[in-house]
Design goal:
This protein is an alpha+beta fold. The protein has five helices and eleven strands.
């Protein structure tokens, strides 16, 4: 799977939209399980207990997603909210759009516009406040080399775009490196050549992380 976007753990971004006195408040947060999504939905419903609708949509990194119109006409609220999350490349997020009814029916088109606009503003605010996180598939590599080779290996790693997560100086030097998935292959080939066929590296499993 390619990289994806999410929100920082614990962050909540909000967006608002108003049409003919109906107020729409989008609340977007990071979740990692269906249980966490359901807990956030329950929290928002309790927060806005007097609202006409609390429309939820969520997407997880494993591909599961859910949405509900919560009493609004079919496909006028939950699906537009979900589509905004999809369009932003977001995963492991839950958005609940609260509607306070203003007394005037907006029609299907008006509802789609309103739920879309509120969710889009929440996403934009997440970006603006630094809560928006880009997750990249990475590969951790641990390398242990003699001090005489340290500077050379460090240069090879940096030239391959690695981040140095940690450096331990003991009898030898151990570098904890993180590469974008695929970038480690050239580094490992050059390292093997530098070490005359030796391979002082341990390659960890691929995972997603900020990079």
């Amino acid at each position: 799977m390619e990289g994806y976007n999410t929100l920082r753990a614990g962050a909540e971004a909000r967006g608002a939209y108003e049409d003919r006195k109906s107020r729409f408040i989008a609340q977007l947060t990071h979740v990692e399980t269906e249980q966490e999504a359901n807990a956030f939905i329950a929290e928002v419903r309790a927060r806005h207990y007097d609202a006409r609708h609390n429309v939820p949509a969520w997407i997880l990194v494993d591909g599961r997603e859910r949405q509900s119109d919560d009493g609004e006409p079919s496909r006028t609220s939950g699906m537009p909210t979900l589509e905004v999350l999809r369009g932003a490349g977001l995963k492991d997020v839950c958005c609940v759009v609260t509607r306070y009814f203003g007394g005037t029916l907006l029609g299907p088109g008006g509802l789609v516009r309103a739920y879309t606009a509120a969710t889009q503003e929440a996403v934009a605010n997440a970006r603006a406040t630094g809560a928006f996180v880009e997750m990249t598939e990475v590969v951790p590599v641990t390398v242990t080399v003699p001090y005489a080779r340290y500077e050379q290996v460090l240069r090879l790693a940096e030239d391959a775009g690695a981040h140095v997560a940690d450096t331990a100086f003991a009898a030898d030097v151990t570098l904890a490196l993180v590469f974008r998935a695929g970038a480690e292959e050239a580094f490992l080939a050059q390292l093997k050549e530098l070490m005359n066929g030796g391979q002082p590296a341990q390659v960890g499993p691929r995972r997603f992380a900020e990079f």
